Amino acid sequence: MTYGICSDVHLHNWSAFSRINEYGLNSRLVHILNEIRLAAEATKRAGGKTLYITGDLFHVRGSVAPSVLNPTIDLFTTLTREQGLVVRILAGNHDLESRDSNALSNACESLRTIPGIEVISTPALFHDDRVVMVPWYDRLDDVRQHIGECLAELVHQSEAVNAWTLMLHAPVDDVIAGLPNHGFQAAELAAYGFKQVFCGHYHNHKYFPGDVFSVGATTHQTWNDVGTRAGYLIVTDSGVAFHPSQAPRYMDFDICWDDATAAEYCRGNYVRLRLGEATSDEISHYRSRLEALGALGTFVQAIPLARSAVPSRRTQVASAPTLRESISQWIRDHSTEGEALEALCHDILTEAEAIRL
């Protein structure tokens, strides 16, 4: 039994570091579509017939631009007609206009008329690969209820649960360092007794004991993805293989890197250098340095300082906290709402980062 898995694709006309190519397509959208294509080709080479997408195919909730939808239709038509793959697309929270998954509010349903595309807006069992798929529900207790109903159906069909795999779109704790815990514990998911569990939602590939996996995003999408593992999975009877994304990554520059290491990490990627106070000349110097090292896009984050103020500089040119880190610290210092407010603010900031100006 062999198949591929992508997750958290977030097809979108991303604005940061993008350009419009000769075909009128957003360059970062093209990077993501190419990664899906690579995952499909790897699935075929491994002998698989199905590519699973465990949620968040699209990015903007409740709205998919034609310039995003049309190339997506073209790609999936190619994958199904020319490569003969079946593509099963699970509803994630970003695909939905509603809080909970249903066909009417799921943007992925726009692809269901393509032969070979199966859109999962409600829990479903697939006997060919022995896969249970549970889409996004806002409350974890609702997810638990649907998993329980699927388990009951397997028992009713005299199926061995430990021969089946669970795929869902839901938060799993300890996938992202520093993110408040408000999701499933991996041990709880393992305790259901499935052969394997694959979760979409958080943008980092990670393995947990009990064969529970956070699939991770298909590509890096924002500065929040720095340090995370993005790519796709190939699942066979012999195990799960992670294939890292070939698309540009978001990187934080480390001033301790030597020239060779800096060139290796900067080349073809989006690179951020965080400073304290810096003059415009210093900022320009560092930006030119990153470009010379091959960075595809650069962001020098600094507190502007006039040239005349250099002798009285209050801080050295050094690392400064990100906006996301500053928000988290403010909430910890001033709010009693805690983790729930921090998670909400991070979601809002992620939405803001995706706005195309």
From TrEMBL:
InterPro entries: Calcineurin-like_PHP, DNA_Repair-Maintenance_Comp, Metallo-depent_PP-like. It holds the Pfam family Metallophos. Residues 1-204 form the Calcineurin-like phosphoesterase domain. Signal peptide: none annotated. GO terms for molecular function: hydrolase activity. This is Calcineurin-like phosphoesterase family protein. It comes from Pseudomonas duriflava. The lineage of its organism: Bacteria, Pseudomonadati, Pseudomonadota, Gammaproteobacteria, Pseudomonadales.
